[in-house]
Structure formats: C-alpha cells, structure tokens
Write a structure and sequence with these properties.
The chain is an alpha/beta fold and 243 residues long. The protein is built from eight helices and seven strands, in the order H-E-E-H-E-H-H-E-E-H-E-E-H-H-H. It is globular.
Length: 243
C-alpha cells in the first residue's frame, strides 16, 4: 500500500510538473533519477523523448482485444488510421518538434508485446477506477505507447468520469519511487471506426505523446465548470433582486 501511494503521487506529479523531452518530471525527480543512475550504474533511464535506453525509436503498438472482429477494427486498418493521425499531429502540433519527435523514428506496429493492463477485470485505473494493482517491470517494453481496442465494459469500469483515456501500462521503480515509462490509450470499436471524425481521439494522441498535460487539462475543465456555476448563480441572484 505504501508503494502504491508513492507511485500514485509520482504519476500525478508527472502531469502537473514541467515538461522535459516530452515526458513530465519535476526537476527534483529528474535530478534524483540521474543521481541514482550515477551512483549505482543504472543505465535504464535516458533523458529525452524515448525515456529508456532500450528504445531506439518511438514505437506505438496497436491491438484489438475486444470481442468484435471485423474489417473496420482489424489491427491493419487501425494502424493505418493511427499513422494518419500521427502525421497530422506532426504537422499541426507545435510541441511535436519542440520535444524532438521529428528527430526520432516513429513507428506504428500491429500487436503489443504487453497485454492491456485494464482489460483484466481484476485491475483498475490508478486514478479513475479505484486503483487496483499496478504493473512494475524490470525491463520496459520497446513500445512507448499502446493503443488498445476494448469492449465498452472496460471503458465503463475505468473511465466513466475520466477526462481522458490514458492509463499507465508499465512502471519502473527505484527504491520507493516509481516512474511511468509506457502509456496506454483505450478506445471502443465504435470510436476507432470514427477516428477521422472524432477530434477527441486526436487529442488522446496529443496526451499519449506527452505534448500536453492531462491533469492540468482536467484542472482547467474544473475551473471552467466553477466559472459557469458562478455566473449562473450571479444571474439567479440578479433575477431575484429585480423581481
């Protein structure tokens, strides 16, 4: 339980701190990781876009693990759709070059070397689904991002009130600190069919590539909600005063 609380705190910190090379770390965490590597000869982490030294390129894997099997949601078709969205991302998002994605190879592949964590009913999202279980690994996968097509029940169980479809897939722990090294994004078959039409799916890739903070976006949405409620309250008070 202690480790769970520590890595959950770290995950939250990742998305509320400054961006370094496309991944979110506080300066203290980044410095701490580097010191640990220097003292213990640990060469797992590397600064920049790829995060771990076993990765030579940005690999995005795609896998349909839903109960629906059709041509529209075949891995091959989904790969082609995601490739087009990433190409669009590289042209339209100004941070894409700022965090050096244009200097590394980006590849979308069929099938992932790891299973989607949230597809197992005994697991749940650490922030939005109750936080049951985690996946700590000694050696991270070569994929930095997994895009999974799952049944609606997986979405309902883990993302019912979530502002996005992100989930940490793999964590590397050093002592009591755990760092997310692989992300997952979850879609339903219907959503992946409409990926060209639905702008929110494009936004999920923005999050998946670490080009925007998901948590800060949630804070912005909460602020906007409170502002709307405040204005509504002021309108009602004004109407009552005039009546």
């Amino acid at each position: 339980m202690k480790r769970k609380k520590l890595w959950l705190f770290t995950i939250i910190a990742l998305f509320t701190s400054v961006m370094i090379g496309g991944n979110y770390f506080t300066p203290v965490e980044a410095h701490s990781k580097q010191n640990h590597a220097d003292e213990h000869g640990d060469n797992m982490f590397v600064g920049g876009t790829l995060l771990t030294k076993n990765r030579s390129k940005m690999t995005v894997c795609v896998e349909n693990v839903s109960s629906i099997r059709s041509k529209d949601v075949s891995d091959e078709k989904i790969v082609a759709k995601i490739e087009k969205q990433i190409e669009k991302l590289s042209k339209e998002n100004k941070r894409y070059k700022e965090v050096n994605y244009d200097s590394v190879d980006v590849e979308v592949t069929e099938g992932c070397s790891f299973t989607p964590f949230l597809n197992d009913p005994s697991n749940s999202h650490p922030l939005y689904g109750g936080g049951s279980g985690d996946r700590v690994v000694d050696q991270p996968s070569k994929e930095s991002l997994g895009i999974f097509i799952v049944d609606q029940e997986v979405i309902d169980r883990n993302f019912d009130k979530a502002p996005n479809r992100w989930s940490p897939e793999e964590l590397i722990c050093e002592g009591h600190e755990c760092f997310e090294v692989t992300k997952g994004i979850y879609f339903t078959p219907d959503e992946i069919k409409d990926i060209k039409k639905d702008k929110t799916l494009y936004q999920e890739l923005v999050y998946g590539f670490g080009l925007e903070s998901m948590i800060s976006n949630e804070v912005d949405e909460e602020k906007q909600k409170k502002d709307r409620e405040k204005k509504e309250k002021e309108k009602k008070e004004m109407k009552n005063n005039n009546s």
